[in-house]
Amino acid sequence: MNKSIDFERAWAALSKMDDILILTHLSPDGDAVGSMFALYLALKQLGKNVRCIIKDIPRSLKFAEVPEAFAEFNEKYVVTVDVGDKKLLGSELNALYGERVDLNIDHHGTNVMFAKETLVVPEASAACEVLFDLFDFGGINITKDIANRLYVGIATDTGCFRYLNTTSKTLRTAARLLDSGAESGRINNDLFETKSPQYVAFEKAAVNSLSFYFGGKCAVMLITQKMYDEAGIVEADTQGINGLPRMIEGVIAGVTVKERSGGVFHASVRTRDPINAADICSVFGGGGHKYAAGCELGTDSEAAVIKIVSAVEENLKAAGLL
Amino acid sequence: MNKSIDFERAWAALSKMDDILILTHLSPDGDAVGSMFALYLALKQLGKNVRCIIKDIPRSLKFAEVPEAFAEFNEKYVVTVDVGDKKLLGSELNALYGERVDLNIDHHGTNVMFAKETLVVPEASAACEVLFDLFDFGGINITKDIANRLYVGIATDTGCFRYLNTTSKTLRTAARLLDSGAESGRINNDLFETKSPQYVAFEKAAVNSLSFYFGGKCAVMLITQKMYDEAGIVEADTQGINGLPRMIEGVIAGVTVKERSGGVFHASVRTRDPINAADICSVFGGGGHKYAAGCELGTDSEAAVIKIVSAVEENLKAAGLL
After folding, report:
1. Where do runs of H (alpha helix) occur along A220-300?
2. Could you tell me if A171 lies within 8 Å of chain B, comparing CB atoms?
3. DSSP-derived 3-state class of residue A314
4. Which residue is closest to A165 within chain B, CA to CA?
5. pTM score, two decimals?
6. Residue A25 in contact with residue A140, Cβ under 8 Å?
7. What is the ipTM of this complex?
8. N or C, which terminus of chain B has less Cβ within 10 Å?
């Protein structure tokens, strides 16, 4: 199946399932956590048997967890949310479930269509925006608990309505979630308006690691495990840092290279027009969106930086900017 | 007149005016600039003779200016936007026009009702949200140029939809502005996603000036003219810094004390529940909103900090937090 199914078919598929396992991508962000537990609650509303597997939920997103979602049973169906490629499930879950995903609900234009059926809406700001429409279609009652989780996903993936993926439909969806009781004030405060002293220390080190290329058109931040340790913070609690390099005036491609726990370096690439982040990351088997994408770059930090800077250079040249 | 008039009366008042001067508050932010020029364009649409007086527009808001709005003529009527108190016009404009403001359109709950007639909607996130409803009432065509300016005001005063003043109505208003052509992507980028190298240098100095009181419940940043000079930046381009002290985990009252060009120190106070920023600032004749307010504290920096910290202490004690 290499084409998205429509809402009707996705809803029909979900409706006939029971004993469902929900998975999302590694290093879960607000959209991964929010869409997982919003879908869990919606399926419970339909009386289904559902469970979730997820690890490394950031501290600021812990509130979105549903504790009873972790009770184990033998699943008959597997549904994934916010997953553009089964590799992003992580090697362990990919080995166990990668070949047997019945339905994937996503918003990545680079989705590789690995599931038996895929509902992917690239115009949606977040998987949670897709889920909202799907719930609307299926007549799910948007409770406060569901609204909170869908709001978290949309707010995270739009940088709280700052990024270019925010459409008038995104804003109207958020308005409906507020009307359904989403505690946007508290959630925005926790996600966007609060920095721990550990984060402040980490951020200083991250800013000091910035290096610039191509007359300031590319900025690269290099984050090592040592920096996490010294600041007393874990990677999961530092996702906000990825937006920083692109914020500096003149930067068209902002890159954050992070050493993950296994020693592999991962790049998060954020771009401005006309540079496409997903194009840059696809060279290394990664993917994402036009202005935000990611990829893995091996275990050597220097080589990782050289690789990604070269890919940025190619794209700047192709766009006539170098 | 110590009660807000309604939209019908405000529209009737505007409709009968001609040769109109529009003013806004000193140190204009996005809502001041946006509401001034949105109203200018709406009144021009009605064929009226209109002019504006404003100075020190931040660099990031220059695009919202309308050059032809500065042509001089003898005004018959004076309208103010986003002004809670005529003192905030600045001494010069207050002396010239403070006593003859025909209509004030505002959203500050602390509005002192200085104008002949006042349309104030404290539930509105921004003066621009009030104007949107007024234009809707009056049948103004929300052109792209008007939509851009109203969007700037709402985005600024809500921290791009992060702050507690963001309601579902605010989000729906923003959605309608996007549908009317507001270039939210570009505007958000310029206002929230771009830092100049000068700002990055200024921000480092500002963070280093932080001091904490009452077990970290109060954080104070002290900004001097020297810090602006050393970073090569002007105050108007540093308004984003005001949100920083409250962002630190545990801070309930975040204060930014800034030396203004005349040597007077001004405090911007941001709070979290249950502390009311307007209450703190009212002690010094200032005002604003529940979570964001301002006041002047004299020409001595040390005394300024002691004064505002004492007022914070009072409020923390009254709330049982000390």
Report:
1. 225-231, 244-247, 277-282
2. yes
3. helix
4. B185
5. 0.90
6. no
7. 0.89
8. N
